[in-house]
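G., before I forget:
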Amino acid sequence: MFDVMRRPAVRDNHPKSDARRRLHNALTQDRVDLAPEAMETLRRELLAVISRYMDVTEGFHEFEVRRVDGLPMLVSSLRVRELQQEITLR
Amino acid sequence: MKGTTIVITSGKGGVGKTTTTANLGTALAMRGHRVVVIDTDMGLRNLDVIMGMESRVVYDLVDVVEGKCKAHQAMVRDRHRFELYLIPAAQSRDKNSLHAEQLQALCGELENEFDYVIVDSPAGIDQGFRIAISPAREAIVVVNPEVAAIRDADKVIGLLEASGLRRPKLIINRVSPEMVRRGDMMGQDDIVSLLSVEVLGMVPMDERLIIAANRGVPVVYDRKSAAGAAFHKIAACMDGDEVPIAAIDGRSGLMDRVKGLIGIDRSAFSHV
């Protein structure tokens, strides 16, 4: 669902990964009082807006509500495709 | 020197708050500190039986705050003659018999005399919890490596931070190193990435802890107990010693055990 869950460190076939994934959703929901579906819609809409300005085909690398210095923060990072200038020059 | 009031809390019940309070209190006292532990779980008094002091309880916390006795009259002293005292919860009174201001005043007074004032909070996040955290300068959240406990811990961490107790620390209790190694149980990294708080220590599942509780002797007195060694490490950490948390991720080995034997543990046991 969220891209953050596909981090390589988490191997999906382990029972603990289920716990982590499910908790990740539950905690996000608890922290911002936003249902997982609403969070997913937000993610998609944000991506749509940003993609009008830059190439973001890979989607969010990270998109979650995390506690930073005691405050809930929406933390997201997005891989932006570099311009293919070199190829054009050749 | 003024002491510190620390609250031990968890949200979810049954994760080991009382066991943690008893063992950290005892381990800190074994390190030469003056320690008082306070049970604030009104009507569900347990810290006295875990510490084996139940037969010597005369007065309780409510008697103290209501002025029926002096704080010292309610304190039960540890049998091993460490500077370790318990103020028991009131067993026949309900949660309305203690107010935040009363507990704050008492802890403030005790801080003048003790290095550590450790408050064992009741489970839940309602009134009893709010009263228990009110006098604290620091908070320790006890959690088990399972979904319900972690979700509740997250809620509690949010509440602690909202009430000014920034940076609560985590104790992960009942860890099975073998299950963590197999990927069947969340480990320290998983829990830290979910909760974003500092881990103070990990305590392994340990049958000797059940035996210790049956006898009313905190497991930190048991030299063979892995859980006991973990609590000694946490106490050393609280004292500012550099102690690696590792030891429990399934990869720990000889070196940690050697360190445990020759280091903190021996000094801790030398009084016994």
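Chain A touches chain B at residues 9, 11, 14-17, 19-20, 22-24, 26-27, 30-31, 66-72 (CB under 8 Å). Chain A is about 45% helix and 20% strand.

More on Monday.
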